[in-house]
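Can anyone check this?
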Amino acid sequence: MYGYGDLIKTTEYALRLGQRVITAGHSVCGRRIPAIIAGEGRPQGIIFGGIHAREHVTCRLVARLALEHRGKALIFVPMVNADGVELCRIGAESLPPEYRENALRINGGKDFSMWKANARGVDINVNFDADWGKGKTNKRYPSPSDYIGAYPESEPETRVLTDLVRRYGITKGLAYHAKGEVIFYGYGNGEEHFAAARRFSALTGYPCMHSEGSCGGFKDWMVGKGLFALTVEVGSENLSYDELYGEFEKIYLENKGAAELLTEI
């Protein structure tokens, strides 16, 4: 399983390759969240993984895409939710003492393998200012998933992404999730990105679907601002999140050209 230590090794290797590595922000627990800027010029796009803790296979995917990227510059954030990934992988002992008891209470036990949220039980991908709180499964209390937070962008991990978009003038993005092998496009009733979604569908072999009722996610926030973004779900639906590593090469090959395609959109 790809963890925070692997992420730090990835950034060290990126520096040896001559890529730029910045600290995009810090997690609730103070972990540094690095971003890799790969390619030439000012980045116009962003690709990230690990916004949901249990989907840590996407961290490994985005890291590999970053290390191999050439051409026009992109920002890669392999692990947005660093605290959540470590909580999912290791358990409550991965958190500072002041967060452990609360996480155990929220989770209702010691098995965090299905945890999606950050260290204080906020689901980062419903914390963006895009019909915030209007999703059918949204919760208004800390939970392993679906808690919207106190207000939009309340979480430092959410602000890692929004700050990068604002700072660099990012106009397009790919949000990697797991699992299901599908590409979600659109926000509300908009169909403006269907043609681009079909190009990614042709690359990956994943069908593209409109995001009916999606609220509060990164893609929703981007599209709502007139920017381009897709959510890409990788991995076979019938496998567990840990078992997805067994088909990692398949996932990688399906998405190998995604970064280059994003620069062309």
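Reply from J.R.: I decoded it. The mean pLDDT is 96.
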